[in-house]
Design a protein that fits this description.
The protein has helices at residues 2-47, 158-183, 186-251, 255-258, and strands spanning 55-62, 74-77, 80-90, 98-105, 114-121, 126-133, 151-154. The protein has 270 residues and is of the alpha/beta class. Strands 1-4-3-2-6-5-7 form a seven-stranded mixed barrel.
Length: 270
């Protein structure tokens, strides 16, 4: 009986030892989990720069190709990185439109004058969303009724503007080509041939007249012009004589009665 009682006490002591060991392992495991959690949170807190930044989600509706843009692509505001692209999808309302959700810092001054465009970074070809604000409307952008997120107005990208310019240039060249083609149709070409032929005929007919005109001009230069010059010289001489006579009459009007010969001397005159 005594041995049986001792055996039960030994069994009970062993069971209590096993339970105490399990409890210690459980406590140690919980401590390790809590410690690792605190370390992880501390690392995240330190990497965040000792501050908690809040973010706001905005929507952008693009009506151009978003090739090269991906989720987590950068979002810049006047060249400063303020967030990332959160989601890209085709609009369920308009298949030609792409909906882009961006997650940017809540401190970013997004206004009604802010516009969003797609830009490409240098030679790397990395596409990102560029936000710009020219200060045309500084009222803060707010959520519109019926919308899930505030919608930022878009502007065409450089590639889009370049493509539009090429398209317009191509259309202009086509219009010019069509106009030239209409102008140079068979009927107009025949008219132009007739006009050139008539001009050639008229030139041939005018050649004798032109030669005669040249002869007339040559005769005028050789004969008429020298005579005209001589006549002008004679007229000038006559005008000089008339001027001289007028001056003499002005000084001595008696010349008209007695002439230029002096009268004979009277009695007693020498």
């Amino acid at each position: 009986m005594v041995r049986a009682a001792e055996g039960r006490r030994i069994f009970i002591n062993k069971g209590q030892g096993i339970m105490e060991t399990d409890v210690r392992y459980t406590i140690a495991g919980i401590f390790v989990i809590v410690l690792v959690s605190f370390i992880t949170l501390g690392i995240i807190w330190l990497s965040a720069g000792f501050s908690v930044e809040t973010y706001t989600i905005y929507q952008i509706n693009m009506k151009e190709s978003v090739s090269g843009l991906s989720v987590d692509a950068a979002v810049e505001y006047n060249g400063v990185n303020v967030g990332t692209v959160k989601n890209i999808r085709i609009s369920p309302k308009d298949p030609e439109q792409v909906e882009i959700l961006i997650r940017i810092r809540s401190s970013t001054p997004v206004t009604l004058g802010t516009t969003a465009t797609l830009n490409m970074r240098g030679l790397t070809g990395v596409t990102f969303v560029a936000l710009r604000d020219k200060g045309t409307n500084k009222q803060k952008l707010r959520l519109s009724p019926g919308e899930t997120y505030p919608i930022i107005t878009t502007a065409p990208s450089i590639l889009m503007r370049f493509d539009q310019a090429l398209t317009e240039m191509n259309a202009t060249f086509r219009r010019i080509s069509a106009s030239i083609e209409k102008l140079l149709n068979e009927e107009n070409l025949n008219y132009m041939r007739d006009i050139l032929h008539n001009l050639k005929t008229l030139t041939q007919q005018l050649q004798p007249v032109i030669r005669s005109s040249f002869d007339t001009i040559d005769t005028f230069n050789r004969e008429t012009l020298p005579r005209a010059n001589q006549a002008i010289v004679n007229v000038d001489t006559i005008m000089g004589d008339i001027s001289s006579i007028a001056n003499e009459l002005k000084d001595n009007p008696a010349i008209m009665l007695r002439g230029k010969t002096p009268p004979p001397l009277g009695p007693g005159e020498r």
